[in-house]
Amino acid sequence: MSVRKRTWTTPKGVEKSAWVVDYADNGGKRRLKTFTKKKDADAFAATATVQVREGTHVADSASVTIEAAGKLWLASAKAAGLERATLEDYERHVRLHINPRLGAVKLPALTIAKVRVFEDDLREADRSPAMIKKVLVSLGTMIADAQERGLVARNVVRDIKGRRGAGEKRQEKRQKGRLKIGVDIPTRDEVKALVAHLAGRWRPLILTATFCGLRASELRGLRWQDVDLEKREIRVHQRADRFNDIGRPKSISGERALPAPPMVINALREWKLACPKKDTGKVDEAGEKIMVLDLVFPNGTGKVEQLNNILRRGLHPFWLKAGVSVDSGEVDEDGKPILDPKYTGMHALRHFYASWCINRRTDGGLELPAKVVQERLGHSSIMMTMDVYGHLFPRGDDGAELAEAEKAFLA
Questions:
Q1: Which end of the chain is more exposed for a tag (fewer CB within 10 A), N or C?
Q2: What pLDDT sits at residue 409?
Q3: Considering the entire predicted model, what is its pTM?
Q4: What gap in Å lies between CA 151 and CA 145, rounded to an integer?
């Protein structure tokens, strides 16, 4: 590999110069790369020497632009059978955020500095921290896909993540995970007030969410065949996404069996008699439509219920009836303050279920082990459970066990 200076004269008689790196790539093919400054040429030569030796170098001419890599990545994601909602998120990230700013850049030319500028641009465009994080994850996954295709040697996005301190990550998780009872998690009194006001078709759904901890998507996709009223058990095997498409839980740990308390089972037993049935599209011998029980919490026609309907028509009105509300800052036509529910999403009920499990005791008087709580929530790892709910677990750090150990030692 050599670095040499090249000079030439333009047709207009202007003398110009540049620095050229002359080298052979992994396959022995001769490559030339031109730089304006010698220091840039030397830096490239040093990096390329190591990459060629390790067999990871990809020349610019053998690679593609980020826009082209995005098309390949989206095509492979679709072929892998990812959920429609996930594919739409990926496509939106590429179309609205990545391509307008980085689409014309060749993959090997993407540097850490350019990714940092890209991140700053998103921030200046008033993108939320959560959105910026999602877009960077998509960009990193796209480059990983290009790596597997041999289009680029280095994933600079993941290099950045690796360089950011572990302490910063721990602090971020710690701050994010500090859910507060009465702020993020309904109190027992608030839930008691909610349960006391539940009625109609929303009662069994909200009770199941509160005392079984199913995610909203899992509730919307729950089937009667997965509810065992005799064993008092609910099994989670599928979910409904925001497009109402039915699919498997996102992870293996999402498939689980949950014990259901008597109050939930009794409500489900009553609801089963009135639950709307699904039209199979078939008719019997008398020409009547064949209707079957399918989803546990469908809409009026037996199809998947919309999440906003559950919130707007079900959960929110009952929170208000229970008096669990906050002042919206607006007034009605009579000048009275308009109240909003204190907890606006279904996930608040799941948070309550987690805290309820953590503070429950077994028949032997022991708290439920953290591993059991993780399994009931359907978390992929115990670390996830502890990051979010670890501060809610009872702490036996009063020193009593140390005193007992000291007595045993001195005896």
A1: C
A2: 44
A3: 0.70
A4: 9
